[in-house]
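Need Pimeloyl-ACP methyl ester carboxylesterase's 3D structure for a figure. Predict it.
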Amino acid sequence: MYSVTSKDGTKIAYDKVGQGPALILVGGAFSYRKFPQQVELAYLLSEYFTVYNYDRRGRGDSGDTQPY
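Structure prediction for Pimeloyl-ACP methyl ester carboxylesterase:
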């Protein structure tokens, strides 16, 4: 797991797999980066892309700084 800090100080967690052009996976409203189908998709795409699979604000390992 990697993390980056947004401008307002919120930690955003992500995983990175593969090599090639960057591709960012955006999970659905109730999803998070470790959802099994999301992980499977990331690995399938990683043959062709560098896949960034992240937890949206307030989900999984990402923080939720108020207000936003």
